[in-house]
UniProtKB/TrEMBL annotation:
Presence of the UniProt keyword Metal-binding in the record: no
GO CC term (a single one): cytosol
Record-linked SUPFAM superfamilies: Bacterial luciferase-like
Protein name, per record: LLM class flavin-dependent oxidoreductase
InterPro entries the record matches: Bact_Lucif_Oxidored, Luciferase-like_dom, Luciferase-like_sf
One Pfam entry name: Bac_luciferase
Family annotation (PANTHER family): BLR5498 PROTEIN, LUCIFERASE-LIKE MONOOXYGENASE
Annotated Luciferase-like domain residues: 15-274
Assigned keywords, A-Z: Monooxygenase, Oxidoreductase
Statement: the UniProt record of this protein carries the keyword Hydrolase: no
GO molecular function, one term: monooxygenase activity
Length: 308
């Protein structure tokens, strides 16, 4: 299993200081053995604790400040005109030297009216599938200049909460991406759907998870209750922390001692998850707390995972 770091950036504070702190966090992540860095996006009408809009712009800035592979987790397709997205993703792949993975999800319907994207009169699922196919065909045919750094363009991990979304990821994508607010039962169900549709072929199931590690498990849980509240409140106020049968209460499998986190990651691996992006610094989390989590992941979690 591969571990990356998910960078929290929001519109509730000035952007540049957040990005500067994130760049320092990525230095710690790399030194601790994490293998990638991921940025999400949202298009809010008022300040929120996460995310910023235009994830490709943010990653373009970070590309010159880290040599970690970069990913979008996830980019919201309805906010983009497909041809322009092909150009911008290809350019970012050039800027980061072929280190980009493009996580994509459809996004809410209101994006069309607010930021100019959208599916027109077409069925959203059909439009999204055609977008993915069009991106790959455009990159493979050298239909944009500059082209992506890699022939065929960056790999694409596709999100979606339904079984149809996981099957779509298995059939036209390079992997499936599950969000922070997908509970473990929902994650396991979608991972099973994905691997069933892959029919024995290799693939990837990635997920973002809130993570806080301390030597003492009780201390970790107390800190997480304090520092993760802005994120969980955002989701629960919208009834958007999902289990298999609808909204559920948030749970934090990756909060606790190193042994607790190792056990949880092994459970994820057994359910078909291949990579986890650790969300260690939500809005308001002291930098030293996030840094300590990453250091413990490097010294006490990854070595145990490597034994399995």
């Amino acid at each position: 299993m591969r571990l990356g770091v998910a960078v929290d950036l929001g519109s509730a504070a000035a952007t540049r200081p957040q990005v500067d702190r994130a760049a320092k966090l990525l230095e710690t992540a790399r030194a601790s053995g994490l293998s990638s860095a991921w940025v999400g996006e949202s298009y809010h009408a008022r300040p929120e604790v996460f995310h910023l809009p235009a994830a490709l712009i943010v990653l373009g800035h970070l590309a010159g400040r880290t040599d970690l592979p970069l990913g979008t987790a996830v980019l919201l397709a309805r906010a983009y005109e497909p041809r322009r997205l092909a150009y911008e993703a290809a350019l970012l792949d050039q800027l980061c030297g072929g280190r980009l993975t493009l996580g994509l999800a459809l996004g809410n319907a209101d994006l069309a009216g607010r930021v100019g994207g959208g599916t027109g009169d077409r069925r959203p699922a059909e439009w999204f599938a055609d977008l993915v196919v069009s991106l790959r065909e455009t990159w493979s045919s050298a239909g944009v200049a500059p082209p992506p750094a890699r022939p065929g363009g960056p790999p694409m991990l596709l999100g979606g909460r339904t079984r149809a979304g996981a099957v779509r990821a298995a059939t036209i994508g390079d992997g499936y991406y599950a969000a922070t607010n997908y509970g473990d039962g929902l994650l396991a169900a979608r991972a099973a759907d994905y691997w069933d549709a892959r029919a024995g072929e290799p693939g990837e199931v990635a997920v973002t998870r809130l993570c806080l590690v301390a030597e003492d498990a009780g201390e970790a849980r107390e800190s997480a209750a304090r520092y993760f509240a802005p994120v969980t409140d955002y989701y629960t106020s919208r009834r958007a922390w999902f289990g298999q049968d609808g909204p559920e209460q948030p749970r934090f499998p990756l909060v606790g001692s190193p042994a607790d986190v190792v056990a949880a990651l092994r459970r994820y691996a057994s359910s078909g998850v291949t990579s986890v992006q650790l969300r260690v610094a939500p809005y308001g989390t002291p930098p030293e707390v996030a840094r300590r989590t990453l250091e413990l992941v490097g010294t006490a979690v990854l070595p145990e995972l490597d034994k399995t």
